[in-house]
Please model this.
Amino acid sequence: MPEPLVSVVIPAWNVERYIGEAIDSVLAQQHRPLEVILVDDDSSDGTRAIVESYGDPVRYVPQQHAGASAARNRGARLARGDLLAFLDGDDLWEPAKLSLQLRALASPARPDIVFGHVRQFISPDLASAERDRIRCDAALQPGTVPSAMLIRREAFDRVGGFDETLRVGEALDWLGRARACGLREMMLAEHVLSRRLHGANYMRGHGDLVGEYPSLIKAALDRRRARGMV
Model:
């Protein structure tokens, strides 16, 4: 049987310093075939030029600024593969990420979605003073975030896309809905994603928005109660 096509969606906004490394980490994957779709959320820096320099291996899709959720959703709508993966434009995949997750999808457990472990790192391009202000736990951690998952397309469609009205917490909201739909999950012990910490990270620059998390957690608990799980 031919190997399955994996569609990789990369949302990007003003990440010219990091987008090349992110794309390289996708193109270095051991698995083929790949479809790489980069949705540019109206960047004002050199992101477009860098992406377009890759030519055919990366499909460049511009959009008006609407946020990472909208970018992920647009990429998912354009994807042709039966499997979907996401990578934020400033993070990095490990070379075996997709191969490990594809093997798990084919296992007798037949999960709908496979996650892996994440390691955070402080971006080496930062000045020492800025590096000192960032708290970084470098230990491997289970990653239930979009960039650490591989999901069957039909399962993603069953859940629906990321909530484009949320400014933060869209991944937590989506995961809650996925679990409410009864998706079968698997967490790999292997390191699949390296998450870059830098001065422009969304949560570090928008700490005032963290107040949305209690409502997201409440919504997730309400879904669990409705299913008789708590």
